[in-house]
Each structure stands twice: as structure tokens, then as C-alpha cells.
Amino acid sequence: MTEKKFYGWKVVVVTAVLYALLGNFGLAAAQITIPVMALDPAVGMDRTMIGIGFTVFILMQGLPGPLIGKFVEKYGAKMAFIASSALIILTGVLLGLFAGASTAAYIVLFGVLLSFSSTLGGQVATQTTIGSWFVVKRGLAMAVTMGLGGVVAFSFPLIANAAIGQEGNWPMGFFLISVMGAVSLVVALLFMRNKPADMGQVPDGLAAVAAAEAAGAATGGQPQSAEGAAAAVADKTSGVFKNPASMTQGQAFRTAAFWLILLASLSIFIALNMAVSSAVLHFNGLGIDPTVVAGAVAVQGIAAVAVNLVIAPLADRIEPARILGVCAFLTAVGALCAFLAQPGDVVMLYVYYVLLGLGFGGNTSVMPTAFANYFGIANFPKIIGTVLLLLSLLSGLVPTIAGMVFDATGAYTTMFAVVAVICLVGTVAGFLVRFPKRG
């Protein structure tokens, strides 16, 4: 009987598409659409109110994290992708019809419903899927997933801007979200598989016998799961630490490594939250044409793809926490460029978005890999769900604070300087993580 071809790499492609359409498109479209909606005379919305909507959005990216982690653990990532798709179809329609009707409608539909819908089919489901299918090549698989997702996602700002058009038809930007949800629903139903065992396979496509032999060699004959066996092999053969056991959430919290990795990633999330809520308005305020700004936002996606092409061969050779520190540094330099940008400064505009894309694109790949490698995969859904909760709580007020600073001073420049400093702190944190010695 011929052995089935390993399905994991197909899962990488499917997961990349779902993560792009469910986890990314809503925010990408909103980043372009909301400034147009806010400036519509029929709507009228000050910068603080715009910021509050983004703050609620960010908080709702994390607050349901532990619950979503339990949902994925119980029902599987495929069900999360399906439920997310259905909710996003509904949410996009409601946003197009009612987001401009009142501040309350904007906050509830964008801040709460869209955020929860995209989170359900976002990082927890994506990272759990890849972590289940790959152990030895987890870093490569995660980087390829995010890189392919970036190839899909780089055009999202341009698509939204084209749909809105010169006449400023902002509801079309929201209706597009529903279209992407419908595409995702079909993809998830037809092609998604939760884990290798669903198809009689094991992580990385290792033959079951080879995995068992590897487990015996690594553990002195003690039985292990396929996932544990693959992790034991990976820890022995790769250039980075990959825990063959799995820590509980409580054990992870008691390590310095958990908080240092979290801090490095948090600094980048703060920079991203500043970007998605305020950067378009900041550069528009410097007299740069909105179409040019939308093009720069798209370049951010291209930069994210580029960094993943670089990270893919490195993530299993260089500790992801160290790469995370480099990403935080790139983001710090980008924030400094936004701070220094002068009216009409298109060069600084593009440098800012390129560095942001490199920094956050790298973070998207290596942050989950860093946690999965250090703390194991068995409790990963719970751990990463809590991580997303902490990231959203700790970074969620950035858009509101930025809006308040603008309404008080007439500029966002001070906030970009603060973000640059925070990202430098994150850089240091990424290089302070220590790893167990391996025999």
C-alpha cells in the first residue's frame, strides 16, 4: 500500500490564505476605509473617537483569547475558521450599512464584532494548526505560512482604496470584508485539516516507525506521542531550543523567558497599533495624497513577505527570540522616521512602512514559534490565547492616547517618538532571553 503524501504543506497554503482573509483583511480594509468615513461630512468623527474604535478593536483581539484558545482546543482550528468566516460575512454587511450611523454603531460593529470575528479565525487557530502539523520544521512552516499570507495581503489596502474610489464611497470598503469571508468559508470547508492524526499522519511527515524509534532514542525507551517524538528529534538536531516536553500555562508564567518574549513582541504590537490607527491620518496631514499613502501601506505587506523569505531558512537555526529583538529594532527605526517626517516627505513615508512591515512581519512569524519552541505544543492554544490577551490589554490604549494627543497638540509626532523608545526596550528584551543547555 502506497503511503499518503504528507498533507502538511497543503495545510500551510490553506492556513496562509485563511489567516490573510480572516485575520488580516478586515483591519487592512478598515485602516483605509475609516479615515474616509470619518471625514465624510455626513458622519464627522474626531481623532479621539477614531482612536477609541481602534482601542476597542485591539482589546477585542485579546480579551476573548483564552476562550478562543479553549474553543480551538475542544473543537479544532477548522471549526474556528468556519465560524469566523460566517461572522465576518455578516459583520461586513452591517458595517457597510450602519458604521456611519452613530459612534456607538462604529464602536460596536468595528471595535467589537469585526475584531472578535477576525480573532476567531486569526492567530490562535493559525498558529495551533501549524504547530500541530510541524515540529522539526516548525519555524520554516510558520514563516512560509506568514509569507504566503503576506503575498495575498499586500494588495488589500489597494483593493480597498480602489473600491472606495475618488468619490469616497466608504461602505464599499466594508462590503469587501464580507466577500473575503465568503471565500474563506469555501476554503475552510473544502481543504482545512486540524492535525496530522486526522489523516493518519504524524508531524513533519515522519513515518510512524521512525518517529517511535526517534522517541526511544531521545527518551531512553520511554513512550512518547508523535508530537513529543518529533520535538525530541528537533531539539537534538536543530540549531535552536525546542522543548520536547510541554509546560503548563502556570509553569510558563513563572519563567523570565515568557515575560521577555512577551515584552519584545508587545513593543512591536504597540508600533502596529499606532500605525493602523494613526499613520494614514498622520501622513495625510503632511500633505501626502491618500492614494500614495495607500500604496505605502501595500508596500508594508510586500516588506512582510520579504522578511519571511529571509526568516524561513533561519527560524530553525537562530533562536526566534533573537530574531524578535531585531524586529523590534527595525520597528523602532521606523517609528523614528515617522517622527522626523516633514510635509510632503514621501521618502520617509515609504521607509516607515517598509520598516514596519519588516518588524511586524517578522514578529508574526517568530513570536508564536518562540512560545511554541520554549513551552511546547500541548498547552500552546491556552498559552498563546493568554499571550494575545496580554498583548491587547497592554497595547490597546495606544490609539486612544494618540487621538487625544492629536486633539490636544494637532500632531501625532510625540507619540511616534514614544513608540520608538518602547521598541528599543523590546529590542533589549529579545536578547535577554536565556535557553536551557542541551546535552
Describe this structure in words.
The chain has 439 residues and is mainly α. The protein is 77% helix and 0% strand. It has 19 helices and no strands. The longest helix is centred in the N-terminal third of the chain and has 32 residues. About 1% of the residues have low confidence.
Q: How do you describe this structure in short?
A:
By secondary structure, the chain is an all-alpha fold. Helices cover 77% and strands 0% of the residues. The protein contains 19 helices and no strands.
Topology record:
Elements: H1 8-39, H2 47-62, H3 65-75, H4 77-98, H5 103-120, H6 123-133, H7 138-153, H8 156-164, H9 171-191, H10 208-219, H11 226-237, H12 249-253, H13 256-285, H14 290-311, H15 320-340, H16 346-375, H17 380-395, H18 398-409, H19 413-432
Low-confidence stretches: 217-221
- How many alpha or pi helices? 19
Content-based structural category: mainly alpha
Q: How do the helices and strands follow one another from N- to C-terminus?
A: HHHHHHHHHHHHHHHHHHH
Over the alpha carbons, how many angstroms does the gyration radius reach?
21 Å
Q: How many β-strand stretches? A: 0
Mean pLDDT metric: 86
Strand portion: under 5%
What oligomeric assembly is this protein in?
single chain
Helicity range of the residues?
A: over 70%
Main pleated sheet: none
Shape: globular
State the separation between the terminal residues, measured CA to CA: 39 Å
